[in-house]
Amino acid sequence: VQPFEPQDPRP
Amino acid sequence: GLNAQAKALLQQYRPIYMSKLSGHLYALREVCNPTREQQEQLLESSQAALEKAVREYAKQMAAGKINRGIVVINGMAQMQGQSEPWDAVRNELDKSIAEHLTEDQLALYKQDARDRREFRRQAAATNLVSAIDKQLSLTEEQRDAVHASLLKSWQESWEVAVRGLLQSPQYLPQLPDKVIVPHLNANQKSVWKAAQR
Fold first, then answer.
1. Candidates B22, B35, B43; nearest CB to A9
2. ipTM here
């Protein structure tokens, strides 16, 4: 599993 | 201050739990669509809890205090299950989720957790019935009855019993007689009793 990275939520 | 052995254990365990945590956070993102800021808050607090718990675990393990599922803390023996790093991460994540998610997001999260638990339970019960069936040759009615009986008195620990199926094809899980025996015929009862000893 790739380390989790925060990203912008889906629109 | 960790000694070399504890450091090596930390290097070994950290990525395992980090990967588990990442999986949970990905799932949470799918279910609740949290803002970037919420994601950062959840990641930060759970990662800090993970680091602390894994360090402690590595330290105790290097000191030889973790043996056969028992941990000795301040001279008191505790079950390993209660001090495993993942429990601490889980607790912190739950706390952080309650703190940072909105009510609507929380409702989605809780519903998803219920659905997952129910799915795991159903799948584990099906696997247990299949294992019992291999040994006792159940009829279709018996399979249904045992499945329903297992779900009715379900114990979380039985999910772990399913792992035994991977080890041995002859495996029969330890389960309470009252859940299984009422649904068996005389021959099956004697096989079951012999296997439970």
1. B35
2. 0.95
